[in-house]
Design goal:
418 residues; alpha+beta; Helix Hairpins; six-stranded antiparallel barrel
């Protein structure tokens, strides 16, 4: 930094002033030194400083005027550009798809009603048998003799009852004696029936048409009352059991048609025969059963199945999931533009989703939906619109012809707007 150059005349003037003041100040005193320092500082502040032979910004003696700051007005920002697609409502064959499994229409534990040693077993495990087929035979033992005894006692009691009734009619027997004879006769009839049933119970037969699934009884083993001779399953008709959410249960009714695809490859159809009246308290779902014909018993129980139930036909829009947005209130919808390129938010309800997109309702038959840029605009904003490039692989994007059909005069040529 260059030192300030003070003119010689100023120096001489300063020396003269200093000598005159020094006569008034006592020497070698701190107060005198302080006074000199203040005088020098005041002189420098009131004088002119020349740096490099030029005056350094002398203060102006004339009043100054404050300059008014003028900020140039910026040009308006261009409108935000979005890409749109044309969506047209179409008929949709609504389909409720459920996961379930096949189930035997009936599973029966064939149990013994009397005890005894197993004398015979039908060797037909895994085979289909008709109702009435002998499955297990127990030793009869003394049961035939007990039946004969009961029949004889029944005949005797009957004769005594008839005789007493004739005597009562002639007045030779009291009514009490008649009632006692009748009671003994009825008791004998009951004993005869019991002996007959006990004998019949030694022959354990199939109660239904079905397949013998298990045969725990063994020949020569003792089978107690209630012991299992065999387990049978009935596969015709076959049931497909599934659980339906509480949101979809109102769409179903008994008798409604359904199709089932088994993981083994078979595809069959049937009708809903049962809808639960109460939901499962843990899952809040309702059990349904679809009855399927299975005359050859080739379809088995317990196979994982995909169940499809056609619902009422509805009109909806098929959209790519990326166009869905949420408004400030948390409602799901899409942002559209009208013919004046003004943005609107329209709430939608999701019907279903598939491999081509999401089906929604709540829109007009034809809508211009913002496909790119929907998250950067707000309702009521005016935007520049660039229609989507048509793609044969995406049915949700409209062709230029569809775009022009609603009054717009833009088309796509090589990705550029004309």
């Amino acid at each position: 930094m260059k030192k300030a150059n003070v003119p010689q005349s100023k120096k001489r003037q300063f020396l003269q002033y200093s000598q005159s003041w020094l006569r008034l100040i006592p020497r070698n005193t701190y107060s005198g030194a302080m006074l000199i320092t203040l005088l020098i500082a005041a002189w420098f502040l009131s004088g002119e400083i020349i740096i490099g032979g030029h005056k350094a910004n002398p203060p102006s003696r004339h009043p100054t005027h404050t300059a008014k700051l003028t900020v140039p007005t910026s040009t308006p920002l261009p409108a935000f550009t979005v890409q749109t697609m044309i969506s047209t409502a179409r008929q949709r064959d609504a389909m409720l798809q459920l996961r379930g499994h096949t189930k035997a229409e009936a599973q029966v534990q064939v149990r013994a009603q009397t005890a005894g040693i197993v004398r015979h077993i039908h060797n037909g495990k895994g085979q289909f048998v008709k109702a009435g087929t002998l499955l297990c035979a127990l030793e009869k033992g003394v049961r035939p003799a007990r039946l004969d005894q009961a029949r004889a006692q029944q005949a005797e009691a009957r004769q005594k009852y008839l005789a007493t009734r004739r005597l009562y009619a002639k007045g030779h027997a009291s009514k009490t004696k008649l009632l006692a004879a009748k009671a003994r006769y009825q008791t004998a009839v009951a004993e005869t029936e019991r002996a007959r049933l006990d004998l019949d119970y030694t022959q354990i037969t199939a109660p239904i048409d079905g397949i013998i699934e298990e045969q725990p009884a063994r020949k020569g083993a003792y089978l107690p009352v209630g012991g299992t001779c065999a387990t049978m399953v009935r596969l015709n008709p076959l049931l497909v059991v599934a659980e339906v959410s509480e949101n979809d249960i109102a769409k179903l009714k008994t008798g409604q048609r359904a199709t089932a695809k088994l993981v083994t490859g078979e595809a069959v159809s049937g009708r809903i025969r049962y809808i639960a009246a109460m939901a499962n308290p843990q899952t809040r779902t309702f059990k349904i059963e679809v009855e399927i014909r299975n005359p050859a018993n080739r379809l088995r129980s317990g196979i994982t199945t995909t169940l499809k139930i056609p619902l009422a036909r509805t009109r909806g829009h098929l959209l790519p999931p990326s166009v869905l947005v949420l408004d400030a209130n948390g409602r799901m919808g899409v942002r559209t533009v009208d013919h004046g390129n003004i943005v609107h938010f329209k709430p939608v309800k999701i019907l279903a989703n598939d491999k081509n997109g999401i089906w929604v309702t709540g829109l007009n038959p034809t809508e211009r939906i913002i496909r790119i840029g929907q998250n950067y605009v707000r309702e009521g904003q005016k935007v520049l619109v660039r229609p989507a490039v048509p793609s044969p692989r995406n049915p949700a994007i409209a062709s230029p012809r569809t775009y022009r059909s609603i009054g717009q005069q833009r088309s796509i040529d090589g990705g550029r707007i004309q």
